[in-house]
Amino acid sequence: MSIQDELLAAISWAAQRGWAPATGGNFSSRTDKGYLVTASGVDKTCVTASDLLLCNLDGGVLEGDGKPSAESDLHAALYRLDSTISCVLHTHTVASTVLSRRFPEGIELSGFEMQKALQGNQTHTATIHLPVVPNSQDMNELADNVRAGWPMPWGFLVVGHGIYAVGSTIAECRRHLEAIEFLLACTLEESRWSK
Ligand SMILES: CSCCC(=O)C(=O)COP(=O)(O)O
Ligand SMILES: [Zn+2]
User: Fold this and answer.
1) Phi, psi of 129, rounded to the nearest 5 degrees
2) What phi and psi values does residue 31 have, to the nearest 5 degrees?
3) Which of 105, 111, 114, 131 is surrounded by the most beta carbons within 10 Å?
4) Distance (Å, rounded) from C-alpha 16 to C-alpha 46?
């Protein structure tokens, strides 16, 4: 499968799960010339090849019509920051939005078997830290917030905004995104126990 087709499949997969409501979310994959990224403001449930733009690593458009994602410069910053990142998938979900507002200093996870889906983890007994960074409409500032907490091998949350998952392949990035979302859904559910 081509990178373009694999990225389109990942976008459709995420959007069908309701993780990209109201045009929220943006998705990209590294290519030999830069990265392919979703156009801004498109309905992510029906993205086609014409909704993808090819950008260079400074975020400049090389090919494609329309405007790249409003958050394209953050994708570019991530590809520049870490040469092992080949895919960035960003979603807006209820669990990530609520928990990033509740825990802006980051989220500790332990005891979940699903932690092992996050690269480098072999046991549910470890305590792992899911980083949360402050939101900004300025992508340079948002990228600075991410750089301040680097490395973030699976991705991070942005306060009141959503999940940015990263991976060395599109498949790994999908696994990280799904695992993070699952772990956050469990954490949100558990927060109801004390009520
Ligand atoms: C509709 S949600 C606000 C914008 C946003 O956070 C997002 O992820 C989508 O922006 P894009 O320009 O990539 O469509
Ligand atoms: Zn967003």
Assistant:
1) -110, 120
2) -130, 180
3) 131
4) 10
Q: Does residue 51 have its Cβ closer than 6 Å to ligand 1? A: no
Distance (angstroms) between ligand 1 centre and the Cα of 177 equals: 17
Q: What's the length of the chain?
A: 195
Q: Is the ipTM of this complex over 0.85?
A: yes
Say how many CA atoms lie within 13 Å of 101 toward its Cβ. Answer: 8
User: Which ligand places an atom closest to the C-alpha of 67?
Assistant: 1
121-130 pLDDT, tens digit per residue, is 999 999 999 9
pLDDT in tens, 15-43: 999 999 999 999 999 999 999 999 999 99
Q: Which two tokens stand for residue 189?
A: 């559910």
Side by side, the strands of the sheet bearing 26-30 are 61-63, 52-55, 35-38, 26-30, 87-91, 162-167, 155-158, 132-133
Nearest ligand 1 atom to the CA of 70 is: 12
Cα–Cα nearest to 27, from 45, 43, 39: 39
Q: Which domains does the chain have, with CATH numbers?
A: 3-190 (3.40.225.10)
